[in-house]
């Protein structure tokens, strides 16, 4: 059995593993896909102290760093069930799709999140070639260009306001006839000269020239007419889904959006079970933040262990 077992091998899980192993305690990490979302990323320019890198390169660096320590790495393992300890200070168990099961005194849940996709033609093909999901990450790559933001909720409107300060022009698309964002955000958006809003529109396709995005097709829902708009980038902002489906039956408390609720030490509602990174209610989902929260959760777990 482990002292600290992390589920998830993204930036948060890598940080947790390193911080735990450095305490000289039995440390393991099990992940469906070591590297996490970073593997799907092209340029990364905001991981402080690394001026520029690429996703796969950073993923390899994370794994190499973990391998410097005595950590059991179990890749390609998908957790399907969490069985919490039945006695205070007892061992928690995690069951995997492979049929394997692991026990540990503490757990760190770091299963991350995924962007909700539109599932329209061209979206997957032009991902990282004009199709983007994270304005904090990729906004500066579209400097001086015309981009669309898909989604008129808070995240879509925030993204449009953010991007309007960087790109030449933003067109915000909303499926419904009204935006759903907070009034104060809508007011701010309306005040910007280089933003326009198309409501009642359903995106039907992302167009490109084979290499990069060059436009977007949408259905004007009232008339059923299909229209095209030429542009160079599309930011999809229709939600971030935490990977917590496997925890729904567990006693770990989740927010209404399915994110794991933690305290300042990274502990969940279940003693001895911690969480870190995008899977939690942490407000901003970034690599540097995931790494920091992984360190917090590992130190929180260590603190918990020395009190048992
Ligand atoms: P993740 O990276 O999501 O890792 C989750 C881990 O858990 C993975 O190993 C996954 O396989 C595993 N997992 C999931 N479910 C299970 C399960 N049931 N059982 C076992 N393992 C499981 N951030 C930046 O700071 N800068 C950027 O430039 C940037 N660009 C981005 C570009 C794209 C296209 C995307 C998608 C994200 C980008 N981000 C960027 C966000 C950043 O990647 C995330 O904030 C960060 O990866 C979160 O780390 P994490 O460890 O919490 O989760």
UniProtKB/TrEMBL annotation:
<feature type="domain" description="FAD/NAD(P)-binding">
    <location>
        <begin position="2"/>
        <end position="294"/>
    </location>
</feature>
<feature type="binding site">
    <location>
        <begin position="268"/>
        <end position="278"/>
    </location>
    <ligand>
        <name>FAD</name>
    </ligand>
</feature>
<dbReference type="GO" id="GO:0051287">
    <property type="term" value="F:NAD binding"/>
</dbReference>
<dbReference type="GO" id="GO:0016668">
    <property type="term" value="F:oxidoreductase activity, acting on a sulfur group of donors, NAD(P) as acceptor"/>
</dbReference>
<keyword id="KW-0274">FAD</keyword>
<comment type="similarity">
    <text>Belongs to the class-II pyridine nucleotide-disulfide oxidoreductase family.</text>
</comment>
<protein>
    <recommendedName>
        <fullName>Alkyl hydroperoxide reductase subunit F</fullName>
    </recommendedName>
</protein>
<keyword id="KW-0521">NADP</keyword>
<keyword id="KW-0285">Flavoprotein</keyword>
<dbReference type="GO" id="GO:0032991">
    <property type="term" value="C:protein-containing complex"/>
</dbReference>
<feature type="binding site">
    <location>
        <begin position="3"/>
        <end position="18"/>
    </location>
    <ligand>
        <name>FAD</name>
    </ligand>
</feature>
<dbReference type="GO" id="GO:0050660">
    <property type="term" value="F:flavin adenine dinucleotide binding"/>
</dbReference>
<dbReference type="GO" id="GO:0102039">
    <property type="term" value="F:NADH-dependent peroxiredoxin activity"/>
</dbReference>
<keyword id="KW-1015">Disulfide bond</keyword>
<keyword id="KW-0676">Redox-active center</keyword>
<dbReference type="GO" id="GO:0000302">
    <property type="term" value="P:response to reactive oxygen species"/>
</dbReference>
<keyword id="KW-0560">Oxidoreductase</keyword>
<comment type="function">
    <text>Serves to protect the cell against DNA damage by alkyl hydroperoxides. It can use either NADH or NADPH as electron donor for direct reduction of redox dyes or of alkyl hydroperoxides when combined with the AhpC protein.</text>
</comment>
<dbReference type="GO" id="GO:0005829">
    <property type="term" value="C:cytosol"/>
</dbReference>
<feature type="disulfide bond" description="Redox-active">
    <location>
        <begin position="134"/>
        <end position="137"/>
    </location>
</feature>
<feature type="binding site">
    <location>
        <begin position="146"/>
        <end position="160"/>
    </location>
    <ligand>
        <name>NAD(+)</name>
    </ligand>
</feature>
<keyword id="KW-0520">NAD</keyword>
<comment type="subunit">
    <text>Homodimer.</text>
</comment>
């Amino acid at each position: 059995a482990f002292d600290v077992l992390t589920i998830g091998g993204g930036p948060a899980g890598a940080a947790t593993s390193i911080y735990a192993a450095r305490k000289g305690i039995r440390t393991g990490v099990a992940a469906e896909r070591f590297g996490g979302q970073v593997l799907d990323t092209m340029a990364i320019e905001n991981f402080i102290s690394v001026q520029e890198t690429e996703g796969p390169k950073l993923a390899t660096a994370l794994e190499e760093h973990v391998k410097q320590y005595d950590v059991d790495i179990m890749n390609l393992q998908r957790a399907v069930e969490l069985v919490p300890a039945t006695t205070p200070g007892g061992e928690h168990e995690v069951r995997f799709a492979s049929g394997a099961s692991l026990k540990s005194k503490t757990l760190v849940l770091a299963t991350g999140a995924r962007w909700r996709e539109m599932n329209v033609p061209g979206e997957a093909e032009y991902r990282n070639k004009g199709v983007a999901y994270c304005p904090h990450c990729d906004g500066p790559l579209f400097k001086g260009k015309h981009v669309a933001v898909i989604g008129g909720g808070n995240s879509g409107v925030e993204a449009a306001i953010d991007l309007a300060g960087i790109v030449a022009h933003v067109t915000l698309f909303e499926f419904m006839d009204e935006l759903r964002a907070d009034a104060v955000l809508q007011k701010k958006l309306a005040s910007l000269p280089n933003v326009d809003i198309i409501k009642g529109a359903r995106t039907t396709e992302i167009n490109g020239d084979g290499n990069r995005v060059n436009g977007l097709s949408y259905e004007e829902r009232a008339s059923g007419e299909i229209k095209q708009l030429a542009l160079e980038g599309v930011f999809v902002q229709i939600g971030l889904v935490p990977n917590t489906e496997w925890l729904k039956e567990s006693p770990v408390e989740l927010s209404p959006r399915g994110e794991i609720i933690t305290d300042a030490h990274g502990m969940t509602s279940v003693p001895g079970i911690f969480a870190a990174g995008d899977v939690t209610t942490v407000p901003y989902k970034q690599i540097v933040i995931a790494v920091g929260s992984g360190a917090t959760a590992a130190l929180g777990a260590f603190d918990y262990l020395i009190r048992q």
